[in-house]
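hiii so my PI (J.) wants the whole complex modelled not just the main chain, which honestly fair. so below is everything: three entries, each one labled with what it is. i double checked the lines twice but i was tired so who knows lol
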Amino acid sequence: MPERTLMGGNIAIAEGAILAGCGAYFGYPITPQNDLLEHMAKRMPEEDRIFLQTESELAAINMVYGAAAAGFRSMTSTSSPGFSLQQEGISYMAGSEIPAVIANIMRAGPGLGNIGGAQGDYMQCTRGGGHGDYYLITLAPSSVQDMMDFTMLAFELADKYRNPVLVMADGFLGQVVESVVIRDRVKKLPEKRWAITGAAGRPKNIINSFEMNPMDHPARIKLILQKFERMQRNEVRYEGLNLEDADIVLVAYGSVARSAMTAMQEARLHKIKVGLLRPITVLPFPYQPLSDLAGRGCKFVAAEMSGGQMVEDVRIAVGNRNEVKLVNSWGGVPLTADEIFEAIDLLA
Amino acid sequence: MISESRKTNYIVIEKDKCKACLYCVSVCPREIIGISKEINRFGVNYAELIAEKAFICTGCKACAIMCPDLAITIYHRSSPDDDTTS
Amino acid sequence: MDGFEDMIFGRPEVMEDRPTHFCPGCGHGITQRLIGEVIDELGIQERAVCVASIGCTVTAYAYFKVDGLESAHGRAPAVATAIKRVRPELFPFTLQGDGDLASIGTAEIVHAAARGEKITVIFANNATYGMTGGQLAPTTLIGMYSASTTGGRTVEQSGYPIRMSEMLATLDGPSYITRVSLHNPANVRKARKAIELAFRAQLAGLGLSFVEVLSMCPINWKVEPVKARQWMADNMIPQFPLGEFKCIPEVEALKKAVKG
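here's the output for the full assembly
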């Protein structure tokens, strides 16, 4: 009988990381994920693992790189302004093929912004975020169970592709308390022959993102681009609800998917045939299923807490075949089921 | 006590590592290192041991200590008759 | 000829047999060799980890037969901290220039030092941003030419150079902080001893050990290498005095083990 308990969203990320064998956590306080940091401060030493509160997000991401380079599953968590600071470190890890997990508990930006939840980092997460050609698998939980499960999945995918993976949540989801099933601990971690463990009995391991000879650099980038192609082929994940007979498809992720579900149920009561396609990976984005639905004649409502970022990916999938309507909120204010329903109603 | 004349210290400068910074030339207390008239693959007049003065090398290692390019190796050769207990 | 032939000075075993990418007379070449000699002396080749940084030290790991990695500008102390915390049996050392450590990296070095992280930092101070062509550095001297202060550094525009060793010595975390120089063989020998003592401090599990090495950069100082040695003595040393700024008793006790 699996153990079930009540847990907050941020805490579920922390516990998920521990279950996945995260050996080192480095973090810096920033609202709305301070409870994640504090929880790790207490739990990691209990598990005989490394915790350090760092002097900045810059230091945190570089420590994640160091521990990951030494072969440990390593993670940090932050919120949007701190996530901006970490782009350099993430770019270095992507360029050096270092696995890591970064949780971004999004808040409203730009700048200091607002501590309320938002989804305004979507572009930053899915279009690289830092400099150079790279892509990060980006998982979007929309329940506390997801927060735990996707954190565990993130470590697995990070090691699989030797690349950082993002867990992209928002401030509201971080604070929500729900019932979760505690998953089993990961028993065996993959071997990492490339890691920094001391050159005893083997040639030295060098970790870098740079070639002395500039002519050797394109080959490196090709490897990264090939990784991205493999991610697109193998790692698309989404949930579809009531899509079989839908005329209107809602596209929403994170906590907005919850409001979208309520709006969908309300619409069905009004005899409007609404379905929901909830991306689980916003990178790689589920373009194909959306395109298939467009081919069937569906209209789309993209719902998000931003000025309009995920909607662009929906438009890429749909093209100009059918209408794609955006319903959104911004500035750290939640998007309600009523607002989403209104948008559906206008379209129906 | 090994007499001076029975000991030989000699330096070997790898010409293709030398960048002609001339630190070795400037620190040698016996001035036994000079500048070659030839150039190496870096296109510089590399430092080289002045053959006639080689035998007066004291083995002080100042040249090798100052060399940034690990171009200098120093050997100490002693004769089998030497009293090695001193 | 009969006799015994000993090599009394040669390339340290841990160092790769290759020419360097440094300019003629660059202090980095000497500093790296000293580190190599100490790694051999202490027998830590299999545990040492070279954390390279940004600047002319960017390919430091190419010169040592040890595990090595790149780090972003200024961040090497954070990277080394993480490696030491997850694998305390390893021996991470950073090699950083003044642009890296004293400019963009001041937060990381101050906090690694304040926390007493058990790592060793070798700080090559040549008062310039070498790799990028000689721009103003936090340690550039007043009146000194730089590519971004072509009329010479002025106080009004750019303030004063930073003495990192003295600053870090105010912290309780570090176990050993010293400043040495490379301008003549006697000082290179002292630099070697300082680096060995710093490494011994880490081996003894003591707090952050830090050696600031005043290093020649003839190209960006715009003097010939042999003149750079005197330039160093005339200009750098008055601004950056040589000596120990912190040496806790446990490190004092290690001095008798240091060779030379």
